[in-house]
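Hi team,

Below is the intake form for TonB-dependent receptor from Ramlibacter agri. Please confirm the fields before the structure is written into the shared record.

FORM ID: S-0412
PROTEIN: TonB-dependent receptor
ORGANISM: Ramlibacter agri
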Amino acid sequence: MRPHPLAAALAAAFPFVLAAQTVEAPVRSLGVVTVTGGQPTSLPTQIPATVESVTREQIDQTINARDSEDALKYLPSLLVRKRYIGDYNHAILSSRASGTGNSARSAVYADGILLSNFLGNGVGGLSFPPRWGLVTPEEIERVDVMYGPFSAAYPGNSVGAVVEYTTRMPQRFEAHGKAGFVSQPFDLYGTHGNFQAYEASASVGNRAGDWAWWLDFSRTDSESQPLTFATRLVSSGTSGGAGQPVTGAVLDRNSAGQPWYIVGAATQYHTVQDHAKAKLAWDISPTLRAAYTIGAWQNRSQGSSESYLRNAAGQPVTSGAININGSSFAPLTGGDLPLTDESLFHVMQGLSLKRHTQGVFDWELAASRYDYVEDRKRQNAAGNTLPGAASGGAGTIADGDGTGWNTLAWKGTWRPGGPHLFDFGLQQDSYELRYVTSNAVASWLTGDPGSLVSEVGGRTQLRSLWGQDTWAFAPGWKTVLGLRGEHWTAATGRTIIPGANVATNWPGRSEDFWSPKAALSWQWRPATVLKASLGRAVRMPTVAELYGATSTTNAQFINDPNLKSERSWTGELSAEQDLGNALLRVTLFAEDTRDALFSQTLFDANANVNVTRVQNVGRIATQGVELAYEGSDVLLTGMDLSGSVTYADSIIKENAGFVAVPGDTVGKQQPNVPRWRASAVAAYRWLPGFSTSVAARYSGPQFRTMNNSDTNGYSYMGVSKFFTVDLRATWQASKTTRLAFGIDNVNGYQYWNFHPYPQRSYVAEVKVDL
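The structure came back. Fields below:
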C-alpha cells in the first residue's frame, strides 16, 4: 500500500529527521494521516481529516505560479479571489462552505507561522486577506490543506480549511534564480490596453554540520487591470439640457439587471513589492532543533483612474454635472475617479524549539509575531477631482502603523505504548488593530496628517488548551477524540468619527467555549478506508468587526461591538480507494452554523458609495459531496491526472436581519458559495526534462447579496460563473537552466467577483538552479 502523499513527502522533504533515527514510513492504512519523524510544520501528529497536498515538483510542472496562493489553484473546493499578480488586499481564500468574503473562516500558516489576518474578516472599509506576500512560489517545498475543524490543535478559524506552507531548508549548498514576465491584453467597457508584470527572485542556502540557513529575495512589478468603475443608473438621470454633454459612456446592466452607464475606470494599480526572508536552523543535538525565521515584505502601490467621457472637443471630462443622451446626471467627483498611494512595510518573525525523538515524549515551543511597521494609504478627497488631484490637493491619510498580532504555543506528543497516542498543547493568540484616518495638510500626496477623520482600534486575545487521543482500539480501527477549551477577550475597543459625532470607548468582553472533536476510521478492505469526522468550531468576532467603522470617499464600513461568536458543527463521511497508481476519494460533508458572522456589501446609489455592514445570520446549513482523484502514470507512462468535483447546497435557514424587506434572505443561497465547482489537471512528460500540462477550472453561478437579488453576474459588482483553461510547458534546457511558457485563461473567459478577474494572460519564465 502506498504511503499517504502528505506523510511520505514530509519525510522525503526533511531527511535530517530520518538521519537521527530509523522511522517506519508513515502510511494511510487507517485513514488518519500519521506524520512521523518530527514534522517541521504546525500539523499535529495525527490528522483526523481530509488532507490534500501539492508538491514543489507539481507546482513547477502544472501551475503558472506568480504568487504563493497560486499553489492552491487546482485543489478540491478551494478558490482564492486573486484579481491580479501581487493582489495584496483582496485575495481571500474560500472553501466548501465559506465564500470569498469570509477570510476568517480559514487558517493559513507558513512553517507554523500564522499568515492569516484575523484582525478582521473579508474586505470592506478595511481588508484582511492572508499575508501571501510573506511566502514566494520559489521557496515552497509543499502545501498541505486540511479540510474542516476536526483537529483540536486549531482555533475555530479552521472551520473551512487549514493551509500549511512548508518552505525549503537545504541539505547541501544550493542557489536559485528566476525571472518571469506576464502580459495581459485587456478589453472591457472603455478600457483597451495591455497590462504587464515583471518578477525576479534569488535564493541561496546551505547546511554545514549542525547549522542550516536559507536566504530568499524577490521583487514583483505589476500592473493590474482596472478593478472598479464609475457608474450612473439610467433611472437617476433627469431629462433636459443641464450638465455638460458628453460621449463615451458605455451602457450596461448592473448586477440587479438595471440599466446603467459605465463612465470611467478606477483602481488600476501599479504595485512594486519586495520580499526578503532569512531562516536559520541549529540542531542542538540529534533530537533537539532550534529555528528562527524573519521575513520582510514591502509594497508601494499607486491606484489610478480614467474617465471614459469626452466633451465636444474630444477632451476627457473628469468633474462637474454631465449630460448623456439628453439626460443630466450627478457631477463626477473624486469618489468616482479616486487616486491612491500606498506604502506598506510588514515584518514577520518566528522562533521555535523542537524535540523530535519518536520516543515516549516529544514537544515543541513556538512563538511568532507579525508587525505593520508601516501601513499608510493616501487618497484624494471627493471634492478634489482630476486632473488637478494628480498634483495634490485635499485628501486623506489612513495610518495602520503598529497593527499586528503575535502567537505563543507549546505542544507535546506522548506515546505511552500500546494503542494510545496523545497530542496536547497550550496556545495564546493576540491581535491589535490601530487605524487612524486624518485629513492631509495641504496635499494628499505629500502632506502630514491633520484633523482627525476617524480612529478605530482594539485588541482581542484567545487562550486555548487542547488535547486529542488517537486510539487504535481494534485491528483495522482507529479513533481520534479531541477537546479544545478557549477563553476569548476583547478590550480597549474604540470607534471615533468626529464628523458623525461618534466617540465611543467600548467595554471589554470575555467568553469561554468548549469544542469537541471526533474521528473514526475503518480499514474495510485492503485498499479501502472508510472514515467519519465530526467537530465543533467557534469563530469569535475580530477586532475590525467589533470596532472598525470607517468612511472614505467611496466606501463605508459599519461595525457592531455586540456581535455574537459564530458556532459551527461540521461533519464528513469519506471513502478512500487505493487504485495502485492512483487514489480516489468520495466525501459527504455537512455544516450547520449558528450566528454566522457576515460582512455584506451593498451599493448606495444615492450616496454613490459601497456600504458594508457586519451582522450575525441566525443559521446557515450546508450539505454537499466532493469527489477527488489523483494518479500517476495514468493511461500512459508519464501522464499524471488529477481532478475534483464539488457540490454544495448552502442555504440561509434563519436570519432576523434583511436586505430590503424582512425575511428576504431566508431560503436563499449563501453568498459566494456556488453549488458546483470543479478542477482538472493533466500533465505529460514527453521526454526527460520536457513536459506540458493543461488545467481547467469551473465554478457555477453564485450570488454576492444575501437576498440573491444580484441576478446578473457578468457586470461590475456581480459574481459570475466561470470556466477557464490554463496551459503550461516546461523545458530543462540544460543541467542548470529551465524555461517555461504558459497561458492562463487561454479561452479568454470574462468573469467577475465584484471586480473583473484577469483575461487571457501570457507567461514566460527562466530559472537557473546551481
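SUMMARY LINE: DSSP finds four helices and 43 strands in the chain.

Thanks, M.
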